Amino acid sequence: SFPELFEKKNYELRIAGGAVRDLLSGMTPQDIDFATTATPTEMKEMFTSAGVRLINNKGEKHGTITARLHEQNFEITTLRIDVVTDGRHAEVEFTTDWEKDAERRDLTVNSMFLGLDGMLYDFFNGYEDLKNKKIRFVGKASERIQEDYLRILRYFRFYGRIAEKPGDHEPSTLQAIKENAKGLAGISGERIWVELKKILIGNHVNHLVRLMYELDIAQYIGLPLDGNLEEFDRATKNIQNLCPKPMTVLTSLFKVKDDVTNLDLRLKISKEEKNLGLFLVKHRQELTKAVGPEPLRPYQDFIMDSREANTSSKICELLKYQGEEHLLRELQEWTVPSFPVSGHDLRKMGVSSGKEIGTALQQLREEWKKSGYNMDKEELLSCLKKL
């Protein structure tokens, strides 16, 4: 196994960062990253002579080597110190000092190492913070943030993952975030969107987005200056346990479709995300459930009249937004019926001109819709005789 390779050469190897946090919280980590005292060159020599496949993915100048073993990729990074940082990326220098490496990490809960023998190396009280569900920057908040302004959003994301209740922040941390908010203007939209999406589907989303407005962050990450916070309150309550898409949550802040366009200009969201935002802004008010025995009908009719493929999934997001849990479940179980009559059937009945066929199909489709899509081919064709 590859730990033995390191041991033989007297290089130290430990599990690092997020995986340690997850293991200590009793969660299965998504991927396990390792840190080592070996330099990239030493690792390459060691792996190559042991016949281990290396995957080239440009991490090397930051000190990361990716080894492929038993159908799995392992990322192993040399301990390092950030020498120059410009708020976006760092130049690094390698070290064998574990504490120095922990010191440049963002949050205390992400700064621990775990020896393969189960020994925990925790220089900044990360384990204590994790147990108390506290999110804190390593060292001085403002220094950590200025190394990479995206850390402001990482603070929010981990707050949403770990903190027990909203509003449990150190005032000095919020102060540092507010003073450095402008730095987010220089961070690429793609990086911001990755973090923001995770915040939107995490806990305390209402509290965290309101905080983005209070701390003056919103304007730098593509959110409207006058976000509709009342609608946002309503929607976040509605959506609570319905697993919405991030865009569904975010759209409740928007008043007009320009808000979606501006978000897209700043964050380069996907076409699908943009279309969902525009769809919700357009239909959230008028497309609502019918009064009476068939509350789902307006939504079904909308899907049936639509000429687009993924209308059903947009309607599902709309129902989540509106908090219509029962209708959502019904719609998810509904299969879109297909219209039972074709032009071929009409020709067999002696309707010959294309134009007449078109008109007849249109009329039958209307009858079929009125019947709640229940009439079958026979009923529809006998209906045609009456027409």
UniProtKB/TrEMBL annotation:
<dbReference type="InterPro" id="IPR002646">
    <property type="entry name" value="PolA_pol_head_dom"/>
</dbReference>
<keyword id="KW-0819">tRNA processing</keyword>
<keyword id="KW-0547">Nucleotide-binding</keyword>
<comment type="similarity">
    <text>Belongs to the tRNA nucleotidyltransferase/poly(A) polymerase family.</text>
</comment>
<keyword id="KW-0479">Metal-binding</keyword>
<dbReference type="Pfam" id="PF01743">
    <property type="entry name" value="PolyA_pol"/>
</dbReference>
<keyword id="KW-0808">Transferase</keyword>
<keyword id="KW-0548">Nucleotidyltransferase</keyword>
<dbReference type="InterPro" id="IPR043519">
    <property type="entry name" value="NT_sf"/>
</dbReference>
<dbReference type="GO" id="GO:0000049">
    <property type="term" value="F:tRNA binding"/>
</dbReference>
<dbReference type="InterPro" id="IPR032828">
    <property type="entry name" value="PolyA_RNA-bd"/>
</dbReference>
<feature type="domain" description="tRNA nucleotidyltransferase/poly(A) polymerase RNA and SrmB- binding">
    <location>
        <begin position="170"/>
        <end position="221"/>
    </location>
</feature>
<dbReference type="InterPro" id="IPR050264">
    <property type="entry name" value="Bact_CCA-adding_enz_type3_sf"/>
</dbReference>
<dbReference type="Pfam" id="PF12627">
    <property type="entry name" value="PolyA_pol_RNAbd"/>
</dbReference>
<dbReference type="GO" id="GO:0001680">
    <property type="term" value="P:tRNA 3'-terminal CCA addition"/>
</dbReference>
<dbReference type="GO" id="GO:1990180">
    <property type="term" value="P:mitochondrial tRNA 3'-end processing"/>
</dbReference>
<dbReference type="GO" id="GO:0005739">
    <property type="term" value="C:mitochondrion"/>
</dbReference>
<feature type="domain" description="Poly A polymerase head">
    <location>
        <begin position="13"/>
        <end position="136"/>
    </location>
</feature>
<dbReference type="GO" id="GO:0000166">
    <property type="term" value="F:nucleotide binding"/>
</dbReference>
<dbReference type="GO" id="GO:0016779">
    <property type="term" value="F:nucleotidyltransferase activity"/>
</dbReference>
<keyword id="KW-0694">RNA-binding</keyword>
<keyword id="KW-0460">Magnesium</keyword>
<dbReference type="GO" id="GO:0046872">
    <property type="term" value="F:metal ion binding"/>
</dbReference>
<protein>
    <submittedName>
        <fullName>TRNT1 nucleotidyltransferase</fullName>
    </submittedName>
</protein>
